[in-house]
Write a structure and sequence with these properties.
The protein is mainly beta. Helix content is 12%, strand content 38%. A four-stranded antiparallel beta sheet has the order 1-8-3-6. It has a four-stranded antiparallel beta sheet with strand order 2-7-4-5, with no helix packed on it. The radius of gyration is 20 Å and the shape is elongated.
Length: 155
Amino acid sequence: DNAFSSNDVYATLANSENGSQIYESFGIADLTGNTINGILVKVEAKFSSTANQSELTIELSWDGGTSWTTAKRAFQYQTADLTMLYGGADAWSRTFVPSELTNTNFKVRITNSLPPATANDLSADLVNVQVFYTVVTLPNKIYQVKQAVNRASTY
């Protein structure tokens, strides 16, 4: 619960050597009928140690956590506090459709994937998702038919 607002109250996974945190329930609007162009994941996170480097990766799930996209390297810093990773189909290794972006299906996993000799604590303050999409409009023919039906129903 701590990673849904940027307030310096962190969700921490102690000694997170290869450890992961999974986030869900982003409340993405119903985009049925639209085309998903890309997904931006914003993560405010840090590691506890300044002596060792760690790598944070991000993966997305479209089926409740059963399957995951190819892990994308977000940053390799010591105590960083912000990263943003945008991806279309190429970056996330798949094309998303609106029905996969529900609270039940869509999840974000962040992982300390390059552990140092001494494990670091992985702390996330914010995990935010923004979906870019194109509104699909009806072809002109269908629109005209709808207009004709509407006019006929007013008589």
